[in-house]
User: Fold these one by one.
Assistant:
Number 1:
Amino acid sequence: MTFLSGRRDLLGLALGLVGLPGLAIAAVTEARLESAGRGRARLTVSANTATAWKLTATARPARLILSLPGSTWRAPARLRGSGPVDAARWDSAGRRLLIDLTGPVSVSRSASGSRLVIDIAPGTQTSHALLVRNGGGQGTIGGAGGGTGGGRGTTTASGLPLIVLDPGHGGKDPGTIGVAGTYEKRITLAAAQELKKQLEASGRCRVAMTRSRDVFVPLDGRVEFARKREAALFISLHADSAPGARGASVYTLSDRASDGLSARLAQSQNAADAAGGLRLPPVSPEIERILYSLVRQETKIGSARMARFAVEGLGRSVTLLPNTHRQASFAVLKAPEVPSILVEMGFLSDRRDEAALNRPAHRRQLAVALSGAVQGWLAQHHAGLVSTG
């Protein structure tokens, strides 16, 4: 929001509050709560002039609170429930809509023009705890402003989850140099660009890349890139060197490597470590430890689920390394609240893998397989499932 447009919004709110003759009073003119499919509910709120909003949550009772300070409510005072919403009612004294829930939820929201849309899906205890602590966003509708803020799991105006792709290496760091002279940094960027194309064509997510050209990005910068954008999923692409190894493999984070090869690969990748910890509100050390543990466990489950989808998808398209899903302490996978996987697309130390990865058709096969895996993961993620299957 520009300084000027922000001033207009504040002016509109002030005029609405004082109710000057001939000027519109800030009012909610429409509110609907309806099914959005797959067990979700959608709340749509419209206002006639610049109206500030803020979405928060409570755990006991399980409730969302949409605050609309200074607004008059001209919509129905009570809304019938749908999906994870039991019912909603307007609290005129507090200038807020109380949304009673049947259990924990996750939310996404978009604000455009005069309308605010909030999608409410069944969630987990962890997703709801983050929503309680971080909120679900704030902004202005009915004026020049849109939506801002919000904890992990919220989305921007497109209403779609964000997938961050991380092409390994770049710039002064070429990565592995293949037996025929192929630079890993070029293969990972080309593969990420193809995967971005496939994912965006699905229409089910947004995509951002930690680098879109030949530049160096430190490992902690890659992790922070995903965290600042509240990514739903982080995928790092590589094509390393390992004598005798051939085929694609998928890695998730673990303090202890699942095998010697995984340990060596992690060591070679970790030129730096991710320093940032989980951003928590001021709480006691005991509560902080509990929350951190819950979030990390949920992230670990989400990462393992994505690894399973990736292995299944890749296995139908390309040669796989035996024991395809492996674990190691890769620094680039250490965002505590973002499910993350590292995909070794093959090994440039193997002439067959190197030749394949240099072919656009083979990279397209990889991208199609991984795009399908992401879509399968998103379907489970938004259904609020917590088992790894």
Number 2:
Amino acid sequence: MAGNSQRRGATRSSNKKGAVAGTGGKNRRALEGRGPTPKAEDRTYHKAHKAKVAAERRDATSTGPRAHDAKSAARGGRPSGRTPSRTTRSSSANEVVNGRNAVLEALRAYIPVSAVYIASRLEADDRTKEILNIASGRGYNLLEVTKAELDRMTDGSVHQGVAIQVPPYDYADPEDLLDRAHEAGEPPLIVALDGVTDPRNLGAVLRSAGAFGAHGVLVPERRAAGVTASAWKVSAGAAARVPVARATNLVRTLTEYKAAGCFIVGLDGGGPVAVGELAFGKDPLVLVVGSEGKGLSRLVRETCDVVASIPILSDVESLNAGVAAGISLYEVARLRSAED
């Protein structure tokens, strides 16, 4: 065994590479500098370059003030002539919005549209007539397709014979929601979702937010529902009117809202205060809705100024996020409309 070890050792010694000689000035070009460091926006791998390309693409789709207002509406209804959104982040793929109410609201809000799909032999009503008038008046690509094709495009959902293809949704910056309230001369009312992953719940929250005057909805950037076709459908067009902002860190954004003067109210079945009895319902308010199963996360709960509850019968286990947000927004609207 010892002899074998020595032989293996000898083999390794015989294969050992010798010292590497220096360049000796032979490869002067290798020693030359590469020139000044390129700007961040010129480096293809840098996020600044990606942001520049995205901005150029958005500018390329603009066809005038109407198109500019369409983008502003998608980010929170801010018309041209006012301060633009600070930053926007888009989802990665085109979405198909279907259903007569959802499509009509999107068109009325000048959401950019790639194509309009109409089922052959469509039973027309006032909504479909307005959809056709808008689509033809703006020169959108209008396509007549079979019901089977629409079923396939919309994954079998109820499309009512109409659908549109829209570019990726432009998310607002969290501070834009405060700006929107300031421009309206109203105390901010924002709904934040903590751990809500079903886009249908997001759509229901958007619908309630639009009905009761909320200035926007805040969602985390990760592990949370985004504005997909399902959210568009359930929102019944409210996604075109109510901005959705994405927070890189929900707790940090809630802390920033608190520093801006907002009260943070978490919703939980065990909360000691009924949401309809909040002492500061007329003040700047952020309602935080947790997931149906897990509720509020620990760090989010610790960030809240108060945890409020919705009184329900004891044999009802819990309310889903969309219902809880709707009831809470109604109660806040009632408090704000009450006389002092």
Number 3:
Amino acid sequence: MNTAVANRPAQAAARPPERQDFYDRIKPLGLTPLWEELHALVPREPQTPCVPAIWRYDEIRPFLMESAALITAEEAVRRVLVLENPALPGRSSITQSLYAGLQLIMPGEIAPSHRHVQSALRFIVDGKGAYTTVGGERTTMYPGDFIITPSWAWHDHGNEGIGGSSEPVVWLDGLDIPMVRFFDAGFAENDDAKAQKVAVPEGHSMARFGHNMVPVKHDHQSPTSPIFNYSYARSREALATLQRQEAPDAWHGHKLRYINPLTGGSPMPTIATFLQLLPGGFAGKAHRQTDGAVYSVVEGHGTADIGGQRLAFGPRDTFVVPSWAPLKLSADDEVVLFSFSDRPVQQAMGILREAF
């Protein structure tokens, strides 16, 4: 419990009458005494209202499929079930700064083209053969792929299947919606066409920027990575190689961060993304950080101990670790986890803290 908040009623009851009278008289002028709120405004350490939580995919998937019978992707624009932190009801937020949801697209559907200033990531959870088109380039989605939609980029999604075979496809959406809402800086626009015209071949961005090389005349001004699909096959291979060649970190196992190849920084200006492997039997040490994180389980079974609350997880589950909550990860069998957080913003502000 937040003791500062819990003590407020007692403090109010103990106020001398002349102080309360003073507060009542200044309130109509839009004034309030800082000394009554300072303990909450400038806490000794983070006092997040968020709580640890887990969304088990096997429980959620039937509701996703049911939603497909209730509304089409075109009518919904984006057919998503929002993963709302239980302590933040009505805010469509999984942490104070981040949004997450599970999006479904059925065979033959198109989620129509639009754009918004919010930056978005898609992490493919279930099914294959859908696609996303960003700025005129299309990429096919496979489980474990991490895909970026940059701020103010036109994007649409479709599900044509592969080789004549179609199946429902589900991915985890991660956006900086709460951050943009905090700054009152949100804009959005619908496209005239339902789907964009594909202007360049699939794989074009990866060929230009995905091999530690850049076209000699390219001048990339965007703060977002020019690669917009980081394939799971390549990333998983990197983790497997590290596992063979070095001992796991005592806190993280084998953990890699995705990068913008032009800067070495995060692929997105507001969201950092990571992929990590925990060997079977791994029992991690406790650590905590101020960037609350959202985890998607790609492979394996294990446990996340978050501030003393033990959450058992399995493939395709999603769980959230609030800011400054101690986290210990353990693996029953080999585990792969994707995660994202608001780390780039905290680093830019100079407020990121970690404790091991």
Number 4:
Amino acid sequence: MTVQVLADTAAAGTSVLAYIPSPPQGVWQIGPFPLRAYALCIIIGIIVAIWWGDKRWQARGGKQGTVLDVAMFAVPFGLIGGRLYHVATDWQKYFGAGKNPVEALYIWQGGLGIWGAVFLGGVGAWIGCRVYRIPLPAFGDAIAPPILLAQAIGRLGNYFNQELYGRETTLPWGLEIYPRFDSDGQLDMMNGVSNGVAEKVVQPTFLYELLWNLLVVFLLVQIDKRYRIGHGRLFALYVAGYCVGRFVVELLRDDEATHIAGIRINSFTAALVFLAAIAYFVFATRGRETPAMLQPALLEGAHPWPWQLGELRRVGAAAEAADREQAAGETTEPGESVVLEKSAPAEPAEPEANSEPAVNESEPADDKDPETGAATPEAEPSGTDATKKGDSGKNVT
């Protein structure tokens, strides 16, 4: 029966398409609180990245819990950076006639630029690594695949929000976009519920990027196992690999975006960041850090959090003082202590008994009479000491 229906449909000149439906909604009300799929995907991605990143850090010889410690600095910076990049590149959505600038703070409605998230997240990670005194490049290598996996999970949030899709298409895997309405029947694409009627069918670019990210995650893990990459070079490969996929995806999109010379700004960003990542990979140090290099050089028991500014300063100052003390100790012989106080001048040594006066070799060996200029006879040595003749021919007493 089904075969006959398909045959009749094909004969009628139409095609049978298996389009991907969008979710009917992306927000569910749980009492007074809205549960947003976008925020949930971001949170799940962060948790997975921290968990897997810590496993990879320990496998490289690092201390358990270090990734979570540094993430407390990196994650807030990353969220702020992602939002800032989105607002800066899509400012027309929040500023101008009829716009509400306060909505620029509504991060739960979507809109995180990965470029800003990685940049400011990297700044936060650098601060965390400075605080806990571990090498940032090695930390980046450990968390590179987990970060990209978190990005893939986050793309599911774009699916629920019906955003980041491409141009209209007739491909069988095209994505159906539904209008959504609130309880009053007003159009509300972000918080409303769809009526099940597709408005258009588009390229599911979010899905393309998700699948590309998973492929690059697999390749990064395999490359890391085979070649034991370190010193930040695996992180550079992650950045370069992501840029390739993002550049292609941007070519398929036609949603509202800032353009430069007719080209989407994200395409420019992807190209420039790709070149920078490849340059770092080529010129960075080869090999991998030893487990000893991954141990936190922090005072025992010190564990400041990002919001403990006073504790951060105290621990940093104490760690620097410990470094100076260690450096000073390395310049002394074993068992020798470093004396910081100024010592008193040494007493002049008493001349030893029967010691001979030192010879001033700057004076001539043969004295002359000051009046006649004739040489005076050499004095005979006193006592029982015999005169010794040195290698230079001078008489040394």
